Amino acid sequence: MTPRGIEVLKKISCNAVGLDSEYTLATGELKSRTYLDSTASTLRLQVVDDVLQHYLPHYSNTHSLLHFGAKLSTHEYAWVHDMVLEFVGADPEAYTAFFVGQGTTASINRVAATLREKRPDRDMVVTSIMEHHSNDLPHRKHFPEVVHVPARMAKTSIGMVHLERLQEALDTHGERVNYVAITGVSNVTGIINPIHEIAEMAHAVGALVVVDGAAMAAHQPIKLSGHDNPARNIDVLCFSGHKVYAPGSPGVVVTLKDLFADIEPQVVGGGMVENVYLNRHTTLEKFPDREEAGTPNICGAIGLGASLYALNQVGMDTLAKEEARTIQYALDRLSEIPNIIIYGETDGSLCKRAGALAFNLRDIEHGLTAAALNDYFGVAVRNECFCAHPYVREMITEVLAEEEDGLTDEELEMMADLHRGMVRASFGIYSTEKDVDTLAEALRHIANNRDYYIENYTRLDSGDYIHKTFQFDHSQLFSVRGAVDEWLEQ
Question: How far is the C-alpha of 108 from the C-alpha of 237, rounded, in Å?
Answer without folding.
Answer: 9
